[in-house]
Amino acid sequence: MGRWMPDAAGRLSRAALELYEERGFEDTMVAEIAERAGLTKRTFFRHFPDKREVLFPLSARIHEVIVDAMAAAPADRSPLAVVMEGYDAAVDMVNKGHAQARRRRAVIMANPELLERQLTKFAATSAAVTEALCERGVARRVAFLTAAAGAAAWRDARECWIEGPETQDLHALLRESVAELRSAVAAPLAR
Amino acid sequence: MGRWMPDAAGRLSRAALELYEERGFEDTMVAEIAERAGLTKRTFFRHFPDKREVLFPLSARIHEVIVDAMAAAPADRSPLAVVMEGYDAAVDMVNKGHAQARRRRAVIMANPELLERQLTKFAATSAAVTEALCERGVARRVAFLTAAAGAAAWRDARECWIEGPETQDLHALLRESVAELRSAVAAPLAR
DNA sequence: TATCCGATGACATTGAGTGTCATCACTAGG
DNA sequence: CCTAGTGATGACACTCAATGTCATCGGATA
Hints:
The structure is a homodimer. Chain A is an all-alpha fold. Chain A has two domains: 8-49, Arc Repressor Mutant, subunit A (Orthogonal Bundle); 56-186, Tetracycline Repressor, domain 2, CATH 1.10.357.10. Chain A has nine helices and no strands. Chain A has helices at 8-23, 30-36, 41-47, 59-72, 79-94, 98-109, 112-135, 140-163, 170-186. At the A-B interface, helix 5, helix 7, helix 8 and helix 9 of A face helix 5, helix 7, helix 8 and helix 9 of B. The structure holds a DNA duplex.
């Protein structure tokens, strides 16, 4: 057996989610999270840069998955198609954890600081997508707007998925959201 | 003459921008900002909820302007047209301060915490726009996606405006961004 | 004149986040 | 078997953002 219990970051992550549910984010101190995980406050900050980040342990890997899938897309696809290819790949990472996703969502929605951090996560993904498009030769401005459209569809679909039953297909929801977005953006600007 | 120097919030805002430029956000302490404004740290926090918020003094009024303009739009306009009506109204508030906008942008871009707060501001505007659309009878999901599209165009246009010469017309840039977004979203999803 | 109000200062306190050094099981080289 | 090194952790002190509380005092009001 190792010198320390395994998966310190995972223990911290789980303890944090539990405590944020029990007492709320504001009324939970980092020292308490660490204690429940059998560690100290100082060690918490060796695994996570701050008290908010502990709720988003997957975001780094999601970026990789999306960017990789985009890189694998055939060269003749439209920018939007490439972006959706990326998000479709991300679906498979997220798909398993419906219950988990609901718990995290409830905690996040209850606190402005956590909502703010979640926005940063969406924006970071969007920035990675923008960059990936640029590397394919898409003009920066088009890349930014396409990434923003994809992010909007992703957020919309994810919201429906979390609110609805676990059996829903996130791929299908994503296609629906894109279709809705298309018709919304195609609407006339003047009479 | 009054008992205190007038416009405490404005003095704090200006002092903060100066200090963030001189030393950077991280290395500026709230007590220093307050001192330069002739006030105390405690009074800073009576005018702004935190050290980041002091860089976004106009955002609350911008929301009002946008929502009011949307409410004034004729009932037969498409959701996207209504949203653009709102942002067009916001242009006139922002248009004057090109130099100021550049200074703030430079400070914000140099610090992750400020970028995060800026995202929250864009998101708050977007949420207000979504709500205004819902009150017009637009379905929530369509409202969200349309608001997201408008926000993307707004950010894109604003970026171009700040980077370019002061003489540029932000209204025109906004129309350009919408046109770009339209063609990007209209692209085919499959071969 | 007496009273209240509203912005501010003064002071104390909490808790997030960081720097620094010690600890100690495990590992590799001799 | 011994020894030096490594890496995750604990212990401790410290800074600073943010908040609660009470005192102050010029001006407005009755």
